[in-house]
Design goal:
This protein is mostly helical. The chain contains eight helices and no strands. Helix 4 packs across helix 8. The longest helix has 20 residues. About 15% of the residues are buried.
């Protein structure tokens, strides 16, 4: 009789262990600065941090003159203009009232969005 109870308990314990072992943390959400290497604590350099993101994600469609949707990018002045009017952050963060960008491509990473947001919040310096 005791063996029958053990045979019932052992599979139950093994089942619980198997289910709990499938859990994982989303480390990039829990520890964003450590895991992703996203450094937004310091000043953001336009030429070193922002331009590479915009080159990779935006300039192919929004290169001046005549950028897609009437949005010209590719120079500090044009990039700053859409940063100041809110279109840049609104579009890349998928905010209501803005066209989600980049169109037809995956959303920017949280780090890329945070980097651009920090640059905008610092008054979009040309550094």
């Amino acid at each position: 009789m005791k063996l029958k109870g053990i045979y019932t308990i052992i599979p139950a314990i093994l089942g619980l262990l198997a289910i709990s072992s499938c859990y994982y943390d989303k480390a990039d959400l829990l520890y964003p600065a450590i895991v992703s290497g996203c450094d937004t604590a310091n000043a953001i350099s336009y030429t070193q941090k922002v331009v590479p993101i915009l080159q990779q994600q935006c300039y192919s469609c929004h290169q001046a003159p005549g950028g897609s949707g009437g949005i010209d990018m590719g120079t500090y002045d044009t990039d700053k203009a859409i940063a100041i009017d809110g279109k840049l952050h609104g579009s890349i963060s998928y905010a209501p009232g803005y066209s989600p960008m980049p169109e037809g491509a995956p959303r920017l990473t949280d780090c890329q969005i945070a980097t651009i947001k920090k640059w905008i919040d610092e008054n979009s310096p040309n550094n």
